[in-house]
Design brief:
alpha/beta, single chain, 11 strands, binds glycine, 42% helix
Length: 386
């Protein structure tokens, strides 16, 4: 029996590009009427469906769009990082052209972060830009990737290395519709990984109660208790929406949107190392993005402790949350400190050759630090080394 849970709407306040993020339980069948309210009837839609999604998720969405009078063409998209590529983008652009999408038509992305980023990039570039609707189906994409308009793909270089998100565009969606019931199709590991971004958000900004609320409700979220899940997802979206509204294009030199990279400079240094595993089982290597982010957030907290911007109590609370979320708090097999710091230097967030990291401050805020003392970074890496 389905439970009645009130949906929540969060506004991303970007003047003429403002849009709503609707978070609810079992709301995917609302997609057709919701889109019609925004763009009117008789549009063509390319519905890009994550290959990993069961038909029980995609069919109600497809039916809803068709019943609302849209002319829908579907395309399946591969959801792994390897397929966050120009090749998949090209295939979807051709699908959009084959479906005869015009300037006023739409792309609808139904899936996780990779599918949302690729489909968003297709919408950003097809005929110099058409509308996109994001329907995220993973926790990570609900609380982070689907909101804020970052779209794009990775580039593979001649030497075989990958530059993550090297090609892309800011392209805000017209609407985000997050049906938390879709989270029940995720593996437990995937769900836990999304929690890493939620833990990151507890350290980020004005919703002072989010830290306590997350501590109190991690188990409810992991068991997908509908009210708790809708509430926490909506609160996390509100954090992201506030940051994006204040600094849409990540231009604020004092932090702004760049603060959302808390933990990520550390994470990027380890997530592409193929042998690292979140546990003792080699077959679980490499780390997933959320696992690397959890470790990165802990390393950033350790930096903050060393720099005196946050308390031991905050570090302990974050460590407990990461552990209760079933995410790693330490990891074996990392290269030496110098190699790790070198890998951090190559992160795309380095600006003009400077290494920038985000460190938490007590009071649910964070600050950007340029060229931190390598000794502090060594202490941070040591704190997550098993
Ligand atoms: N995921 C970081 C951002 O959207 O800016």
């Amino acid at each position: 029996m389905s439970r009645q849970v009130a949906s929540r709407t969060v506004r991303v306040d970007l003047e003429q590009r403002a849009y709503d993020v609707i978070v609810g339980h079992e709301i995917r069948a609302e997609i057709g009427p919701r889109i019609r309210e925004i763009v009117g009837p008789d549009r063509r839609i390319l519905l890009v469906i994550d290959d990993a999604l069961p038909n029980s998720i995609s069919e109600p969405a497809l039916d809803s769009l068709a019943r609302a009078g849209f002319h829908v063409t579907t395309a399946r998209a591969k959801a792994d990082e390897e397929h966050k590529s120009l090749e998949q983008t090209g295939n979807l652009l051709i699908a959009a052209a084959n479906a005869r999408l015009g300037r006023d038509d739409l792309v609808v992305a139904l899936g996780g972060g990779v599918v949302g980023d690729v489909a968003g990039f297709v919408a950003a570039t097809y005929r110099r830009g058409i509308g996109v609707i994001q329907c995220p189906t993973t926790l990570l994409s609900m609380v982070d990737a689907s909101v804020g308009g970052k779209t794009g793909v990775n580039l593979t270089l001649e030497d075989g290395s990958t530059l993550k998100n090297a090609v892309g565009a800011f392209h805000q969606p017209r609407l985000v519709l997050a049906d938390t019931q879709t989270l029940s199709t995720l593996s437990e590991r995937n769900l836990r990984c999304g929690l890493a971004e939620c833990i990151k958000h507890t350290l980020l900004c004005a919703d002072e109660g989010l830290l306590e609320r997350t501590e109190d409700n991690i188990d409810g979220l992991l068991s997908l208790e509908p009210e708790i899940t809708v509430d926490l997802v909506a609160r996390n979206v509100a954090v992201k929406a506030r940051v994006v509204a204040a600094d849409e294009r990540e231009h604020d030199p004092t932090g702004g949107r760049a603060l959302l990279n808390l933990g990520h400079t550390f994470a990027h240094a380890i997530e592409t190392l193929p042998h690292l595993s979140p546990d003792a089982h080699r077959e679980n290597a490499p780390l997933r993005h959320g696992e690397a982010v959890a470790l990165g957030v802990l390393a950033a907290c350790r930096c903050a402790l060393e720099l005196g911007t946050c308390s031991q109590d905050l570090v302990d609370r974050v460590t407990r949350m990461v552990s209760r979320a079933g995410l790693p708090v330490q990891i074996a097999g990392m290269p030496g400190d110098d190699a790790l710091i070198d890998r951090m230097q190559h992160d795309k967030k380095t600006l003009g050759g400077k290494l920038r990291i985000v460190v938490p401050e007590t009071g649910s805020r964070c600050r950007l630090m340029t060229n931190p003392d390598p000794k502090v970074l060594q202490i941070a890496w040591a704190s997550i080394r098993a």
